[in-house]
């Protein structure tokens, strides 16, 4: 199996921390899978198949595999489906065989991860399909603490592009920044004077567009505008900077928003509200 590398993400540390949480490592009486240790013989071996119970877009199989490998370095794993693949219900995703205790101990951590990430990828793919190629879907920073790199990886597997990874890689001026600075132009000007190269500015009315652009905004976020207002805003911007629609976007509304001429649509629901994918793992004794 090809080594899984995600920039700026420590897979080994994530796996160890997740397993430690489940095993109760460091807690009095913890550090053990009491059920597997008491019920399963030490030398018992299992084989298993992980499969999709519904149609999904796959994300996270190499990460799931890392949990099994952490507890049984000799486990045999075959990943059957490439990341980002759309599969039908009943598709086999992974085959594995190894020490029964180890596989059972790692099972829930592995499944939780692949179900969560595949759920995000699946919902993202639905939004991408609803856009119909008219513009580009972006994710947001509305991620679970500690899981940002994984969740944004999952949106990429579903066909979206990543927006800011954090607070460090671009300025995003929003209404609270504007309120403190005294206006859109003032806020943007301060960011530019500070030497910030990429300045994303949120505007909630067309009247704010020219002041933001004149002050040096490099990207405009058009917040909670209806399609008619978005079309007007796109006409004012005239391709001088990228135009992004955001705020309250759903599967029912994204198609009409994509028709307005915006370059991007950002959707917090991709990571904030995606349901877990239904993925199962069945073992049998060897």
Describe it.
Belongs to the NadC/ModD family. Hexamer formed by 3 homodimers. Residues 120-282 form the Quinolinate phosphoribosyl transferase C-terminal domain. One of its GO terms (molecular function) is nicotinate-nucleotide diphosphorylase (carboxylating) activity. It is an enzyme of class 2 (transferase). This protein has 286 residues and is an alpha/beta fold. The chain folds into two domains: 11-128 and 274-285, Alpha-Beta Complex (Aldehyde Oxidoreductase, domain 3), CATH 3.90.1170; 131-272, TIM Barrel (Alpha-Beta Barrel), CATH 3.20.20.70. Helices cover 41% and strands 19% of the residues. It is built from eleven helices and twelve strands. It has helices spanning 11-23, 34-39, 61-71, 100-131, 148-157, 175-181, 184-193, 209-215, 227-237, 254-258, 269-272; strands at 45-52, 56-57, 76-79, 86-87, 92-99, 136-138, 171-173, 199-203, 219-223, 243-246, 264-266, 279-285. The strands form three sheets. A six-stranded parallel beta sheet has the order 6-11-10-9-8-7. The protein has a four-stranded antiparallel beta sheet with strand order 3-5-1-12, covered by helices on one side. The protein starts with 10 loop residues before the first helix and ends with a strand. The mean pLDDT is 97.
């Amino acid at each position: 199996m090809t080594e899984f590398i995600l920039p700026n993400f420590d897979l080994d540390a994530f796996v160890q921390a997740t397993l430690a949480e489940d095993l109760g490592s460091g807690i009095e009486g913890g550090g053990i899978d009491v059920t597997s240790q008491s019920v399963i013989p030490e030398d018992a071996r299992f084989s298993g198949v992980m499969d999709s119970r519904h149609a999904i877009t796959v994300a996270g199989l190499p990460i799931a595999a890392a949990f099994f490998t952490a507890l049984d370095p000799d486990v045999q794993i075959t990943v059957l489906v490439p990341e980002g693949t759309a599969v039908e219900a009943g598709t086999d995703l992974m085959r594995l065989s190894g020490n029964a205790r180890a596989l059972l101990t790692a099972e829930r951590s592995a499944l939780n991860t692949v179900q969560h990430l595949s759920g995000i990828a699946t919902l993202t793919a639905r939004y991408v399909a609803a856009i119909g190629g008219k513009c580009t879907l972006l994710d947001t920073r509305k991620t679970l603490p500690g899981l940002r790199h994984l969740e944004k990886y999952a949106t990429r597997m579903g066909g979206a592009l990543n927006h800011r990874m954090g607070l460090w890689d671009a300025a995003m001026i929003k209404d609270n920044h504007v309120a403190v600075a005294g206006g859109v132009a003032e806020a943007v000007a301060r960011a530019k004077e500070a030497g910030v190269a990429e300045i994303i500015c949120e505007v909630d009315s067309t009247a704010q567009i020219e002041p933001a652009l004149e002050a040096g905004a490099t990207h405009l976020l058009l917040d909670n505008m209806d399609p008619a207002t978005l079309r007007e805003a796109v006409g004012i911007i005239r391709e001088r900077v990228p135009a992004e629609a955001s705020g309250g976007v759903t599967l029912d509304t994204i198609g009409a928003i994509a028709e307005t001429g915006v370059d991007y649509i950002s959707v917090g629901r991709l990571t904030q509200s995606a349901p877990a994918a239904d993925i199962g793992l069945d073992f049998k004794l060897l």
